[in-house]
Design a protein that fits this description.
The protein folds into two domains: 131 residues, NAD(P)-binding Rossmann-like Domain (Rossmann fold); 216 residues, P-loop containing nucleotide triphosphate hydrolases (Rossmann fold), CATH 3.40.50. Helices cover 36% and strands 16% of the residues. The protein contains 13 helices and 13 strands. The strands form two sheets. The protein has a seven-stranded parallel sheet, with helices on both faces. The protein has a six-stranded parallel sheet with strand order 3-2-1-4-5-6, sandwiched between helices. Strand 8, helix 7 and strand 9 form a beta-alpha-beta unit. Helix 4 runs parallel beside helix 5. The chain is globular.
Protein backbone atom coordinates (compact mmCIF):
# COMPACT_ATOMS: atom_id res chain seq x y z
CA UNK A 1 0.00 0.00 0.00
CA UNK A 2 1.32 3.45 -0.87
CA UNK A 3 0.39 7.08 -0.43
CA UNK A 4 3.30 8.84 -2.14
CA UNK A 5 1.32 10.60 -4.82
CA UNK A 6 4.32 12.08 -6.61
CA UNK A 7 5.77 8.69 -7.50
CA UNK A 8 6.02 8.65 -11.28
CA UNK A 9 5.75 4.86 -11.11
CA UNK A 10 2.02 5.20 -10.41
CA UNK A 11 0.83 5.10 -14.00
CA UNK A 12 -0.35 2.56 -16.54
CA UNK A 13 -3.62 1.16 -17.81
CA UNK A 14 -6.79 1.60 -15.81
CA UNK A 15 -10.53 1.11 -15.65
CA UNK A 16 -12.85 3.43 -13.74
CA UNK A 17 -15.58 2.30 -11.35
CA UNK A 18 -18.64 4.59 -11.30
CA UNK A 19 -21.29 2.43 -9.61
CA UNK A 20 -24.26 3.46 -11.76
CA UNK A 21 -23.42 7.19 -11.53
CA UNK A 22 -21.57 7.74 -14.78
CA UNK A 23 -24.03 10.40 -15.99
CA UNK A 24 -24.23 12.10 -12.58
CA UNK A 25 -22.30 15.08 -11.18
CA UNK A 26 -21.04 12.77 -8.42
CA UNK A 27 -18.89 11.02 -11.04
CA UNK A 28 -16.91 14.16 -11.85
CA UNK A 29 -13.63 12.32 -11.17
CA UNK A 30 -14.55 9.86 -13.91
CA UNK A 31 -15.63 12.74 -16.15
CA UNK A 32 -12.25 14.40 -15.77
CA UNK A 33 -10.42 11.19 -16.66
CA UNK A 34 -12.66 10.61 -19.67
CA UNK A 35 -11.81 14.09 -20.95
CA UNK A 36 -8.06 13.84 -20.29
CA UNK A 37 -5.73 11.44 -18.53
CA UNK A 38 -1.96 11.76 -18.80
CA UNK A 39 -1.17 9.41 -15.90
CA UNK A 40 -3.40 6.48 -16.87
CA UNK A 41 -4.52 4.99 -20.16
CA UNK A 42 -8.23 4.46 -19.61
CA UNK A 43 -9.34 1.10 -21.06
CA UNK A 44 -12.97 1.44 -20.04
CA UNK A 45 -15.58 2.24 -17.42
CA UNK A 46 -17.17 -0.29 -15.08
CA UNK A 47 -20.81 0.73 -14.68
CA UNK A 48 -23.68 -1.76 -14.91
CA UNK A 49 -26.24 0.97 -15.66
CA UNK A 50 -24.55 2.12 -18.88
CA UNK A 51 -22.87 -1.04 -20.19
CA UNK A 52 -22.51 -1.17 -23.96
CA UNK A 53 -22.25 2.61 -24.44
CA UNK A 54 -19.32 4.98 -24.96
CA UNK A 55 -18.35 7.04 -21.92
CA UNK A 56 -17.66 10.16 -23.97
CA UNK A 57 -21.08 10.10 -25.57
CA UNK A 58 -22.69 9.78 -22.14
CA UNK A 59 -20.60 12.66 -20.80
CA UNK A 60 -21.01 15.26 -23.54
CA UNK A 61 -22.05 13.53 -26.75
CA UNK A 62 -18.46 13.14 -28.03
CA UNK A 63 -17.31 9.61 -28.91
CA UNK A 64 -13.99 8.94 -27.17
CA UNK A 65 -13.61 5.19 -27.68
CA UNK A 66 -13.89 4.52 -23.94
CA UNK A 67 -16.41 1.66 -23.67
CA UNK A 68 -18.58 1.01 -20.63
CA UNK A 69 -18.68 -2.55 -19.29
CA UNK A 70 -20.92 -4.23 -16.72
CA UNK A 71 -17.95 -5.74 -14.87
CA UNK A 72 -14.15 -6.03 -15.11
CA UNK A 73 -14.35 -9.55 -16.56
CA UNK A 74 -16.19 -8.21 -19.62
CA UNK A 75 -13.57 -5.49 -20.02
CA UNK A 76 -10.69 -7.95 -19.86
CA UNK A 77 -12.39 -10.29 -22.33
CA UNK A 78 -13.01 -7.45 -24.78
CA UNK A 79 -9.70 -5.59 -24.40
CA UNK A 80 -7.54 -8.69 -24.09
CA UNK A 81 -5.59 -7.47 -21.08
CA UNK A 82 -6.01 -6.84 -17.38
CA UNK A 83 -5.76 -3.17 -16.37
CA UNK A 84 -3.02 -2.23 -13.93
CA UNK A 85 -5.40 -0.13 -11.86
CA UNK A 86 -9.09 0.24 -11.04
CA UNK A 87 -9.99 3.82 -10.09
CA UNK A 88 -13.00 4.67 -7.93
CA UNK A 89 -14.34 7.51 -10.05
CA UNK A 90 -17.28 8.88 -8.13
CA UNK A 91 -18.07 10.60 -4.84
CA UNK A 92 -20.50 9.03 -2.39
CA UNK A 93 -22.63 10.24 0.52
CA UNK A 94 -20.32 10.70 3.48
CA UNK A 95 -17.28 9.86 1.37
CA UNK A 96 -17.46 6.16 2.26
CA UNK A 97 -17.38 3.12 0.03
CA UNK A 98 -20.99 1.86 -0.35
CA UNK A 99 -21.58 -1.70 0.80
CA UNK A 100 -22.96 -2.57 -2.63
CA UNK A 101 -19.52 -1.91 -4.14
CA UNK A 102 -17.67 -4.19 -1.70
CA UNK A 103 -18.02 -7.29 -3.94
CA UNK A 104 -16.67 -5.41 -6.96
CA UNK A 105 -13.71 -3.99 -5.02
CA UNK A 106 -13.02 -7.42 -3.55
CA UNK A 107 -13.10 -9.00 -7.01
CA UNK A 108 -10.79 -6.36 -8.50
CA UNK A 109 -8.19 -6.86 -5.78
CA UNK A 110 -8.43 -10.66 -6.01
CA UNK A 111 -7.63 -10.35 -9.72
CA UNK A 112 -4.39 -8.59 -8.84
CA UNK A 113 -5.60 -5.19 -10.05
CA UNK A 114 -4.42 -2.33 -7.84
CA UNK A 115 -7.10 0.04 -6.52
CA UNK A 116 -6.87 3.83 -6.65
CA UNK A 117 -9.32 5.37 -4.22
CA UNK A 118 -10.30 9.05 -4.13
CA UNK A 119 -13.00 8.72 -1.48
CA UNK A 120 -12.53 10.25 1.96
CA UNK A 121 -12.62 6.78 3.51
CA UNK A 122 -9.22 5.10 3.34
CA UNK A 123 -9.91 1.68 1.86
CA UNK A 124 -6.42 0.50 2.73
CA UNK A 125 -7.46 0.64 6.39
CA UNK A 126 -10.30 -1.84 5.83
CA UNK A 127 -8.76 -5.11 7.00
CA UNK A 128 -10.63 -7.28 4.53
CA UNK A 129 -9.33 -5.36 1.52
CA UNK A 130 -5.83 -4.88 2.92
CA UNK A 131 -5.55 -8.63 3.41
CA UNK A 132 -6.70 -9.40 -0.14
CA UNK A 133 -4.30 -6.82 -1.59
CA UNK A 134 -1.40 -8.33 0.33
CA UNK A 135 -2.14 -11.88 -0.80
CA UNK A 136 -2.77 -10.91 -4.46
CA UNK A 137 0.27 -8.61 -4.71
CA UNK A 138 -1.94 -5.63 -5.59
CA UNK A 139 -1.83 -2.16 -4.03
CA UNK A 140 -4.41 0.15 -2.50
CA UNK A 141 -3.61 3.79 -3.17
CA UNK A 142 -5.72 6.08 -0.98
CA UNK A 143 -5.33 9.46 -2.67
CA UNK A 144 -6.91 11.38 0.20
CA UNK A 145 -4.84 9.79 2.95
CA UNK A 146 -3.27 12.74 4.82
CA UNK A 147 0.45 13.38 4.55
CA UNK A 148 2.64 12.76 7.56
CA UNK A 149 3.59 15.78 9.66
CA UNK A 150 7.19 15.72 8.41
CA UNK A 151 5.96 16.10 4.82
CA UNK A 152 3.79 19.18 5.48
CA UNK A 153 4.83 22.80 5.05
CA UNK A 154 4.06 26.05 6.83
CA UNK A 155 3.80 29.28 4.83
CA UNK A 156 7.16 31.11 4.72
CA UNK A 157 6.84 33.98 2.27
CA UNK A 158 9.00 32.34 -0.41
CA UNK A 159 6.08 32.86 -2.81
CA UNK A 160 7.60 36.31 -3.46
CA UNK A 161 10.50 34.59 -5.26
CA UNK A 162 8.15 33.09 -7.85
CA UNK A 163 8.32 35.16 -11.04
CA UNK A 164 5.77 33.16 -13.02
CA UNK A 165 2.33 34.64 -13.66
CA UNK A 166 -0.04 33.05 -11.12
CA UNK A 167 -3.66 32.59 -12.20
CA UNK A 168 -6.34 31.05 -9.97
CA UNK A 169 -9.45 29.37 -11.34
CA UNK A 170 -12.00 29.94 -8.57
CA UNK A 171 -15.75 29.49 -8.53
CA UNK A 172 -18.99 30.75 -7.06
CA UNK A 173 -19.84 27.20 -5.94
CA UNK A 174 -18.42 23.68 -5.76
CA UNK A 175 -18.68 21.09 -8.56
CA UNK A 176 -18.65 23.72 -11.31
CA UNK A 177 -15.85 22.45 -13.54
CA UNK A 178 -12.98 24.56 -12.18
CA UNK A 179 -10.49 21.75 -12.77
CA UNK A 180 -11.74 21.21 -16.33
CA UNK A 181 -11.39 24.92 -17.10
CA UNK A 182 -7.91 24.86 -15.57
CA UNK A 183 -6.88 21.94 -17.78
CA UNK A 184 -8.35 23.58 -20.90
CA UNK A 185 -6.39 26.76 -20.12
CA UNK A 186 -3.12 24.91 -19.50
CA UNK A 187 -3.50 22.96 -22.74
CA UNK A 188 -4.27 26.07 -24.81
CA UNK A 189 -1.34 28.05 -23.39
CA UNK A 190 1.10 25.15 -23.81
CA UNK A 191 -0.05 24.65 -27.41
CA UNK A 192 0.89 28.27 -28.13
CA UNK A 193 4.36 27.90 -26.64
CA UNK A 194 3.65 29.35 -23.19
CA UNK A 195 5.29 27.13 -20.56
CA UNK A 196 2.33 26.49 -18.24
CA UNK A 197 1.71 24.11 -15.34
CA UNK A 198 -1.32 23.44 -13.15
CA UNK A 199 -1.32 23.12 -9.38
CA UNK A 200 -3.85 20.45 -8.48
CA UNK A 201 -5.79 20.73 -5.23
CA UNK A 202 -8.07 17.69 -5.55
CA UNK A 203 -7.63 13.99 -6.20
CA UNK A 204 -8.76 14.17 -9.82
CA UNK A 205 -6.02 16.62 -10.78
CA UNK A 206 -3.42 14.17 -9.56
CA UNK A 207 -5.19 11.26 -11.25
CA UNK A 208 -5.14 13.17 -14.54
CA UNK A 209 -1.38 13.52 -14.27
CA UNK A 210 -0.68 16.95 -12.78
CA UNK A 211 2.74 16.88 -11.15
CA UNK A 212 2.53 19.62 -8.53
CA UNK A 213 -0.05 20.11 -5.80
CA UNK A 214 -1.81 18.37 -2.94
CA UNK A 215 -5.28 17.23 -1.92
CA UNK A 216 -6.84 20.24 -0.20
CA UNK A 217 -9.49 18.47 1.86
CA UNK A 218 -7.05 15.88 3.20
CA UNK A 219 -4.73 18.52 4.69
CA UNK A 220 -4.87 19.97 8.22
CA UNK A 221 -6.01 23.59 8.09
CA UNK A 222 -2.81 24.99 9.62
CA UNK A 223 -0.85 23.76 6.60
CA UNK A 224 -3.17 24.77 3.75
CA UNK A 225 -1.41 28.07 3.00
CA UNK A 226 2.01 26.47 3.30
CA UNK A 227 1.13 23.54 1.04
CA UNK A 228 -0.22 25.94 -1.59
CA UNK A 229 2.91 28.05 -1.43
CA UNK A 230 5.17 25.00 -1.48
CA UNK A 231 3.45 23.51 -4.54
CA UNK A 232 3.75 26.77 -6.49
CA UNK A 233 7.36 27.29 -5.39
CA UNK A 234 8.35 23.71 -6.22
CA UNK A 235 6.78 24.06 -9.66
CA UNK A 236 8.64 27.33 -10.21
CA UNK A 237 11.96 25.81 -9.13
CA UNK A 238 11.63 22.66 -11.23
CA UNK A 239 9.92 23.93 -14.39
CA UNK A 240 10.63 27.70 -14.67
CA UNK A 241 7.11 28.20 -16.11
CA UNK A 242 5.73 31.36 -17.64
CA UNK A 243 2.31 30.69 -16.08
CA UNK A 244 1.12 28.68 -13.09
CA UNK A 245 -2.61 27.89 -13.08
CA UNK A 246 -4.10 27.06 -9.70
CA UNK A 247 -7.18 24.84 -9.43
CA UNK A 248 -9.68 26.23 -6.94
CA UNK A 249 -11.91 24.31 -4.56
CA UNK A 250 -15.50 25.02 -3.44
CA UNK A 251 -16.05 28.80 -3.32
CA UNK A 252 -15.28 31.82 -1.18
CA UNK A 253 -18.73 31.82 0.42
CA UNK A 254 -19.99 28.24 0.31
CA UNK A 255 -20.91 27.68 3.98
CA UNK A 256 -20.11 23.95 3.83
CA UNK A 257 -16.51 24.60 2.83
CA UNK A 258 -15.48 28.19 2.17
CA UNK A 259 -12.25 28.26 0.19
CA UNK A 260 -10.32 30.52 -2.14
CA UNK A 261 -8.94 33.32 -0.03
CA UNK A 262 -5.87 31.14 0.62
CA UNK A 263 -5.19 30.98 -3.11
CA UNK A 264 -5.49 34.75 -3.54
CA UNK A 265 -3.62 35.85 -0.42
CA UNK A 266 -1.07 33.13 0.33
CA UNK A 267 -0.07 32.68 -3.33
CA UNK A 268 -0.25 36.37 -4.26
CA UNK A 269 -2.36 35.69 -7.35
CA UNK A 270 -1.94 37.94 -10.38
CA UNK A 271 -5.42 37.22 -11.64
CA UNK A 272 -8.56 35.14 -11.13
CA UNK A 273 -10.77 33.32 -13.60
CA UNK A 274 -14.19 33.00 -11.97
CA UNK A 275 -16.39 30.02 -12.86
CA UNK A 276 -20.15 30.39 -12.39
CA UNK A 277 -23.34 28.43 -13.07
CA UNK A 278 -26.11 30.93 -13.91
CA UNK A 279 -28.90 28.36 -13.46
CA UNK A 280 -27.99 27.69 -9.84
CA UNK A 281 -29.75 29.77 -7.21
CA UNK A 282 -28.47 28.00 -4.10
CA UNK A 283 -25.20 26.28 -3.27
CA UNK A 284 -24.96 22.72 -4.58
CA UNK A 285 -26.41 20.26 -2.07
CA UNK A 286 -27.47 23.06 0.28
CA UNK A 287 -30.73 24.03 -1.38
CA UNK A 288 -32.68 23.49 1.85
CA UNK A 289 -30.31 25.81 3.70
CA UNK A 290 -31.70 28.59 1.50
CA UNK A 291 -28.61 30.78 1.21
CA UNK A 292 -28.42 32.15 -2.36
CA UNK A 293 -25.19 32.09 -4.33
CA UNK A 294 -23.82 35.66 -4.51
CA UNK A 295 -23.97 37.44 -7.85
CA UNK A 296 -20.94 37.43 -10.11
CA UNK A 297 -20.60 41.17 -9.57
CA UNK A 298 -20.48 40.71 -5.78
CA UNK A 299 -17.97 37.88 -6.03
CA UNK A 300 -15.69 39.92 -8.31
CA UNK A 301 -15.82 42.75 -5.77
CA UNK A 302 -14.88 40.38 -2.94
CA UNK A 303 -12.01 38.92 -4.94
CA UNK A 304 -10.72 42.43 -5.60
CA UNK A 305 -10.90 43.24 -1.89
CA UNK A 306 -8.80 40.14 -1.21
CA UNK A 307 -6.17 41.43 -3.61
CA UNK A 308 -6.65 40.08 -7.14
CA UNK A 309 -8.40 41.23 -10.33
CA UNK A 310 -10.90 38.97 -12.07
CA UNK A 311 -9.68 38.74 -15.66
CA UNK A 312 -12.41 36.51 -17.06
CA UNK A 313 -15.65 34.76 -16.11
CA UNK A 314 -16.30 31.21 -17.36
CA UNK A 315 -19.77 29.73 -17.35
CA UNK A 316 -21.00 26.25 -16.50
CA UNK A 317 -24.15 26.07 -18.62
CA UNK A 318 -25.87 23.19 -16.83
CA UNK A 319 -29.67 23.35 -17.12
CA UNK A 320 -29.46 26.08 -19.78
CA UNK A 321 -30.34 25.69 -23.44
CA UNK A 322 -28.01 27.38 -25.99
CA UNK A 323 -30.11 30.55 -26.18
CA UNK A 324 -30.27 30.86 -22.38
CA UNK A 325 -26.50 30.36 -22.18
CA UNK A 326 -25.90 33.17 -24.67
CA UNK A 327 -28.27 35.45 -22.78
CA UNK A 328 -26.51 34.71 -19.50
CA UNK A 329 -23.15 35.45 -21.10
CA UNK A 330 -24.30 38.84 -22.42
CA UNK A 331 -26.03 39.75 -19.17
CA UNK A 332 -22.93 39.07 -17.07
CA UNK A 333 -20.61 40.82 -19.53
CA UNK A 334 -22.83 43.92 -19.47
CA UNK A 335 -23.19 43.87 -15.68
CA UNK A 336 -19.56 43.19 -14.80
CA UNK A 337 -17.59 44.64 -17.74
CA UNK A 338 -15.44 41.51 -17.89
CA UNK A 339 -15.08 38.95 -20.72
CA UNK A 340 -17.34 35.91 -20.32
CA UNK A 341 -16.49 32.54 -21.90
CA UNK A 342 -18.39 29.26 -22.33
CA UNK A 343 -15.52 26.73 -22.12
CA UNK A 344 -17.40 23.60 -23.21
CA UNK A 345 -19.19 25.30 -26.09
CA UNK A 346 -16.64 27.87 -27.29
CA UNK A 347 -13.32 26.64 -25.96
CA UNK A 348 -11.02 28.68 -23.77
CA UNK A 349 -9.12 30.67 -26.43
CA UNK A 350 -10.53 34.09 -25.48
CA UNK A 351 -9.54 33.57 -21.87
CA UNK A 352 -6.13 32.20 -22.86
CA UNK A 353 -5.53 35.29 -25.02
CA UNK A 354 -5.97 37.47 -21.94
CA UNK A 355 -3.35 35.43 -20.08
CA UNK A 356 -1.01 35.51 -23.10
CA UNK A 357 -1.23 39.30 -23.15
CA UNK A 358 -0.44 39.37 -19.43
CA UNK A 359 2.65 37.23 -20.09
CA UNK A 360 3.77 39.58 -22.86
CA UNK A 361 3.38 42.56 -20.53
CA UNK A 362 5.49 40.85 -17.86
CA UNK A 363 8.21 40.16 -20.44
CA UNK A 364 8.15 43.80 -21.61
CA UNK A 365 8.48 45.00 -18.02
CA UNK A 366 11.44 42.69 -17.49
CA UNK A 367 13.39 44.23 -20.40
Amino acid sequence: MTNKLHQDTISGTACIITGGLLNDIHAKTAHGLVRQSDRFKILGIIDHAFAGQDAGEILDGKHRNIPVYANPDQLIEHVGQKPDYAIIGMATKGGVLPQELYPLVRHVLEMGISLVNGLHQTIGDIEEFASIAHSSDSKIIDVRKPKGFKDLHFWTGKIKEVEALKIGVLGTDCALGKRTTSKFLVNDLCDSGINTHMIYTGQTGWLQGSKYGFVFDATPNDFISGELEHAVYECWQQESPDVIVMEGQSSLRNPSGPCGSEHIISCDLDGVILQHAPARKYFNGLEDYGKPIPTVRDEIALIELLGAPTICVTLNTEDLNPEEAREAKKRIEDDCSVPVVLPLQEGIAQCADIVRNMVKQVRVNDL
